[in-house]
Design goal:
Radius of gyration: 15 Å
Number of domains: 1
Number of helices: 5
Shape: globular
Helix content: 55-70%
CATH architecture: Orthogonal Bundle
Strand content: 5-15%
CATH topology: Arc Repressor Mutant, subunit A
Structural class: alpha+beta
Length: 101
């Protein structure tokens, strides 16, 4: 497929990132992290009120697709959005979802 904006490998990566983001729990995680916050699995699971194992699963998917990064600090691993501009996608989705209400 030819596209003037993306090379084929870039299209594949972008598609994978968007698919990874397209889940209610993952959108909530990204909304929580969108302003540059770095949070642990425990902080995120407590904030969202979901099981820690579920939180870890979703964080792993987002990290695997290049949406999130992590940094280990002692016993804790902190997760954060790899490209802060992705927070604008979350803002856009929120704005669009509220538009028809």
């Amino acid at each position: 497929m030819q596209n003037s904006y993306f090379q084929e490998d870039q299209l594949e990566k972008a598609t994978g990132m968007l698919k990874a983001m397209a889940h209610p729990v993952r959108i909530s995680i990204l909304d929580f992290l969108k302003n540059g916050q770095k949070m642990t699995v425990t902080q995120i699971h407590e904030y969202l009120g979901i099981e820690q194992s579920t939180t870890s699963h979703h964080l792993g998917i987002l990290k695997d697709k290049g949406v999130l990064c992590s940094k280990r600090d002692g016993k804790n691993t902190y997760y954060y959005i790899k490209h802060l501009v992705l927070g604008q996608i979350i803002d856009c989705m929120q704005s669009c979802a509220c538009e028809d209400q």
